[in-house]
């Protein structure tokens, strides 16, 4: 006697998105990448600018902050991409 069993599944696939949908999704991804790039470049510029200002800090201010000239120079000499 043969028993009925389920050995296959019927599945329905989702409809494929249209080319317009693909283009919109791609555009969203490109916009997000551009925004991330601009944010990163702005952060690098701000970091570079602050390090340039550190080089000109006065000895009196250094004493107030509690840092040495060597510590300031080490920070100012870091590349802009390093935090």
From TrEMBL:
This is YjiS-like domain-containing protein. It holds the Pfam family YjiS-like. It comes from the Bacteria. Residues 37-73 form the YjiS-like domain. The lineage of its organism: Bacteria, Pseudomonadati, Pseudomonadota, Alphaproteobacteria, Rhodospirillales.
């Amino acid at each position: 006697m043969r028993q009925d069993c389920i050995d296959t599944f019927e599945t329905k696939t989702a409809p494929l998105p249209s080319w317009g949908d693909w283009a919109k999704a791609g555009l969203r991804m490109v916009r997000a990448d551009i925004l991330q790039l601009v944010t990163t470049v702005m952060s690098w510029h701000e970091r570079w600018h602050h390090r340039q200002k550190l080089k000109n800090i006065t000895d009196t201010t250094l004493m107030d902050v509690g840092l040495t000239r060597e510590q300031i120079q080490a920070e100012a000499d870091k590349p802009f991409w390093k935090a």
